[in-house]
Design a protein that fits this description.
150 residues; alpha/beta; Rossmann fold; 6-stranded parallel sheet; 41% helix; Flavodoxin/NO_synth; flavoprotein; Flavoprotein-like_sf
Length: 150
C-alpha cells in the first residue's frame, strides 16, 4: 500500500515526525513517500492508496507558510481521493487555547470535503508537554498501520 506523507512545519519538528512516520510505515511493509517540498503533481503521480498529513500550527491556528501552497493546490484541483483512508497528526501548543492544533482541524475539513476517510482520531501533540514528538507519535502510528491493514 502506497502512503503519501505530507508535512507542514515551522521549526522542522513536523517534518521530523513525518520522516519518523515514513520509517515506521516502511518497516511495517508499506511504501511511504514523503517530500517536505511536495507538489500536487508529484503526489498524484505517486498514486497514493492512503494519506498522512503531519502539520504544525502557527499564528492563530493557521497552517505553516510552507504548507499553504500545497494545501491551496489540493483544494483548487480537488483530486479524486474520495474514500482514501487518511490520518492527521497535528502539532501545536495548548497554551494557545482554542487555536491549539488549528492547522490539523483545517486539514480535517479538507479531508471531509475531498471524501478522505479518517481512519482514527487526529493526534494532537502539545509542544508544551513533549520533547520527543516522534516517539510520542508511535502509538498513534501503530494504530494507523493497523487501521490501514483493516
Amino acid at each position: 500500500m502506497k502512503v503519501a506523507i505530507l508535512s507542514g512545519t515551522v521549526y522542522g519538528t513536523a517534518e521530523d515526525v513525518a520522516r519518523h512516520a515514513a520509517n515506521l510505515l516502511k518497516a511495517a511493509g508499506f511504501e511511504p513517500w514523503h517530500d517536505p517540498r511536495a507538489q500536487l503533481d508529484q503526489i498524484l503521480a505517486f498514486e497514493p492508496d492512503a494519506l498522512l498529513i503531519v502539520t504544525a500550527t502557527t499564528g492563530m491556528g493557521e497552517l505553516p507558510d510552507n504548507f499553504v501552497p500545497l494545501y491551496s493546490a489540493i483544494r483548487d484541483k480537488f483530486p479524486a481521493w474520495q474514500g482514501l483512508p487518511g490520518g492527521v497528526i497535528a502539532l501545536g501548543d495548548a497554551s494557545y487555547g482554542d487555536t491549539f492544533c488549528g492547522a490539523g482541524e483545517l486539514v480535517r475539513e479538507m479531508f471531509a470535503e475531498l471524501g478522505v476517510r479518517e481512519v482514527q482520531d487526529m493526534l494532537r501533540l502539545d509542544a508544551s508537554e513533549t520533547v520527543t514528538p516522534e516517539t510520542d507519535a508511535e502509538p498513534w502510528l501503530e494504530g494507523f498501520v493497523a487501521a490501514l491493514r483493516g
